[in-house]
Input
Amino acid sequence: MPGCMIVCDGGNGAGKSTVLKAIEVHLKDLGLDPVMTREPGGTPIGERIRDILLDRGAAEMCDVTELMLFGAARAQHLQQKILPAIGAGKIVVSDRFNSATVSFQHYARGISFDVISQLNEIAIGDFKPNITIILDLDPAIGLDRVASRGSELDRLEKEKIDFLEKARHGYLEQAKLDPGHFVVIDASQSLDVVVQEAIAIVDRTLKNRNN
Ligand code: TMP
Output
């Protein structure tokens, strides 16, 4: 059976963690042995890069440094973890991937699409996840949810709401431009419904992989 990659991405506080947990349980119930992973992170080197990227104290980080660190973590992730797992016929499920770079570093930060594409090309070549599930939510609601967890906001969550709104728009644009590889779920619905919709997308992706 061929391996495949499913990404869950979208705004902070949109329910990503709950959806990812539900996908993991669902895949295990199907007798599969999914590789659950995340970006930035997923490997020991990637997790160290993540610490730098999300450090609230690193406010001086310039945009190109940020972009290249996300790219460096992704290159390591693909080589060390994703490709070997897919090669072994596994289902890789990632919390964010290159869709986040396009949304946050291009649409929100304003780095040109050409530069983003060059970096993605260096990091992952022509590799594409089979499907990217976008959890779409008004960032004001997402930030309220993050704040209600009581955890401190990281460097990117501390960005102005306008930045997060541009990133949201970026996800919706990507989905519009590539409907074969993106599906948007309205994350303002109850979490049960969001989870059900995500599981249906996972099932459809698994079915397509066998065709
Ligand atoms: P999270 O995955 O724990 O929500 O945090 C990761 C943060 O990094 C989140 O604010 C989105 C941001 N991010 C980017 O700006 N670009 C990227 O390429 C990735 C993977 C994440």
User: Anything to note?
Assistant: The longest strand covers residues 4-10. Residues 12, 39-40, 70, 95-96, 100-101, 104-105, 156-157 surround thymidine-5'-phosphate (CB under 6 Å). The beta strands are 4-10, 35-38, 91-95, 131-136, 182-186. The CA atoms of residues 101 and 125 lie 15 Å apart.
